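Hey, resending since the last one bounced:
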Amino acid sequence: MIVSGSKMHPAGFLYHLGWTAVDWLFPPYCIDCGTLGERWCQACQEKVPFLAPPLCEQCGRPIERAGLCPECQHEPLPLDGVRSCYVYEGTIREAIHRLKFEKDLGLAEILAKALVKTLSHEHWNIEVITSVPVSSTRMKERGYNQAEMLAVPLALITGIPYKRSLLKRIKESPSQIGLGRQERQENIRDAFVATARASQFSSILVIDDVITTGSTLQSCALALREQGVKQVFGLTLARAISRDPLARAIS
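The structure tokens again:
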């Protein structure tokens, strides 16, 4: 299924109405300007630029001209494409922090709309959506998987099926924070396995909240390919990069 981005699936509309009712009963404050009644108001959303072309055709990082970045030319990823909505800074960093650590689950439905918009710019033929699984320790601590909280409304809005049980995390890896590229790759190596159910699909989209070096998505992609999945794509809400003038807004 290719996402057009033009219409919301009925299930997504019902999901939206559910959170609208919650916000009516317990009015939130905008994460940016503090406006009462909205988790992230439209005016504040429009102030945050999306990552825009030219992007590396494979890993999705900003580059000077269309094509592949030097890293992907030297060592292609086991992914057919990766894209992110925003740079991981400012309001977006705060939004992800609230989603991951402060249980602001209603925020995920708003953030998922950015995923829909980014996905609509790509000509990816997606059969099914899944998310990067968290460790059992993280699940016990938080009670939910923040990547799944983004993936579910994305699936409901687009009508693309969401399948939770395609990937399993089998390794309790230490936090990736502060690690370099090589350390991240080693830390996450063999952390995931794909279940037999994944072999039913030829094209899978994997959702995560933030990408830094891409090690986590690469590990997921390798696991899925071992089950015979032909195409694996990655989509994240944010990308952790240095402040870059190549991060421009798109309409």
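Residues 155 and 162 are 6 Å apart (CA to CA).

Sorry for the duplicate.
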